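Slide 14.
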Amino acid sequence: MSDPTKRFSTRVENYIRYRPGYPEALLPLLEERSTLRHGDLVADLGAGTGKLTERFVERGYSVYSIEPNEPMRLAAGRLVGSGDCRFVDGSAEATGLADSSVDLVAAAQAFHWFDLEPTLDELARILRPGGRVALIWNVRDERCSGFMRDYEALLADHGTDYRNVGAHGVDTGTRERLFGPHRGSFERIPNEQRLGRDGLVGRVLSASYAPEAGHPGHEEMIAALDALFRRHETAGEVVLHYRTEVYHGPFYRYI
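Slide 15: predicted structure.
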């Protein structure tokens, strides 16, 4: 599917239940580095089902949760519940927010889907002077175990376009355009998930590149997942290891 705003419409429940959250240390780290400051108004771009939005709201921040996919946006509203949060039908390229209206723009597991040039224009428009940016990904760590290496191989073998959409992170040129010549700051935080067999299947099916039931390759992928789980489970669980990678700093725009 070419439109990234629609890729996850049929995967919302698996996304909510089986995608990893973000570590408790994430926001304290951003606060310690002064990327996030008490009283900031935050825009969470490509907020999806609200996993990062929830972290901000729990810590007392006011948040615009920006998401163009309606099923995901509605799910975020259910997840976050109460708190100072507004759920906005908008995109990274056209948020619908007022000029100079937010202090921090964050994007978790989403920036690689954005159209870079209009997104940079939109950041320049909505951020207040001195505004900051934080881009976050949960990145699977293949180095941690044989299971992680085999899991990655399974996704490459059975994902429909995994090699095209499995990217993460920010290249050097984009970092310079976001943060200036010093390219901002980069941090890593350990993160993990423990999943049973059904959780592992749900985790894979939450990804846009995994063939869904009734689609070619689905049954073969599930059989391969079952074999992978049997080979690596301990006490009915496998552990998915991640590095939560964070690119952050003051926004810098070439004029």
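Speaker note: The chain is about 35% helix and 25% strand.
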